[in-house]
Amino acid sequence: MTIAGTPSASGVAIVRRPTRVRLAWLLALLAVLALLVAASIAIGSRDVSWDEIVAALGGSVDGLGPAAVAKRISRTVLALLVGVALGLAGGVMQGVTRNPLADPGILGVNMGASLAVVTGIAWFGLWTYTGFIWSAIAGAAVTAVFVYVVGSLGRGGATPLKLALAGAATSAAAASFISAVVLPRGDIAGGVRSWQIGGVGGASFDAIAQVAPFLVVGTVICLLAARPLNSLALGDDLAAGLGERVLLTRAFASLGAVLLCGAATAVAGPIAFVGLIVPHACRLLVGVDHRWLLPFSAVAGAVLVTASDVLGRVIARPDEIDVGIITAIVGAPFLIAIVRHQKVREL
C-alpha cells in the first residue's frame, strides 16, 4: 500500500509508505539477516556440530571445531559491519549529491582509500590496522573532495552525470597508480592483490575492535544527517529557504560517509556496488524519506554482504569466492539497468 504525496522540486512525485508497511519490511529484513548469520556460522569448508558452535559462542577455541566456528563468527561480524557501512554510505552519498549513480565505488572513494593504504604499505612500511584505517579515511576524504570539485567545473555545477564521469575517471586513475606502486614490490604484491579484490575472509576480532569506533562515529553522523538530507532533496534554494545550511549539511553528511567508506575499505578491501544496489532497493520498500531509508540501507547492506559471503563459500566449496567478486557480478547488471532506466541524458 502506498500513499501519493506532493511533487518534489524535481517534479517527481514523492511516494509515502504507511509506518506499518515500513515496520513489516524492517522485520522481514531482520529475519532474513538472522537466517544469514546462522548460515554464515554453520557453513564452511568443514561441517561443525551444534556442540562445537555452542562451545565457540561460550568463548572456547579448544579443538579444531570451536576454533573454526570462532573464525566464522569473526568473519560474520565483519561482514555485518562492512555491509552496514557501505549501505549507509551509499544512501548518504546519493542524498548529498542527488545522484542516482552515487556509490563509494563509482565515485572513486573506495579506490582512493585503497591507493592511500597501498602507498602506506609500499612506501612507509604500514602494517597495522590503525594505520590502514587512518590512511584509508584520508584517501577517501581527498578523493571525495577531488571528485566533487572536478564534477563542479563548467556550466551547470555538479550534475549527477558529471560526478559519475569524474568518479569513474578518478577510480581508473587510482587503480593505475596502485598497479604502479605494487608492481616493483614483489614482496607485497600477493597480499595487496588479494586485499584489493574485497572480502571478509581475513577477519579477526582485533581488526573488528579497531575499526568499530570509526564505524560507530560514521553511522551516528549519517543518521543525524537524515532529516537535513530530506531538505536537500527539495533543491538547494528551497532547502536554504527552509533554514538549512546547505554547504554545512553536505559537509557533515559527507564526513560520515567518508568515515564509513574508509574504515570498511581498510579492513575488507574495496567492495563495490553495495552502496549502489542497497539504497535503490530500499527506496522501493520504504520510499525516499531518509529517516527511514538510511536505517533500512544499513540493514539491507548487512544482508547483501553477508549473503554474498555465504554464497561465495557455497558455490566454490571447499574453496571460496570473495565478496567483492559476488557483488560485482550482481552490481554490474544493476548499474546498466539504472542507466537505461534513467536515460543518461537526463541524469
UniProtKB/TrEMBL annotation:
Its main location: membrane. It is found in: Cell membrane. It is a multi-pass membrane protein. Coiled coil: none annotated. CDD domains: TM_ABC_iron-siderophores_like. Keywords: Cell membrane, Membrane, Transmembrane, Transmembrane helix, Transport. Belongs to the binding-protein-dependent transport system permease family. FecCD subfamily. This is Iron ABC transporter permease. It comes from Microbacterium marinilacus.
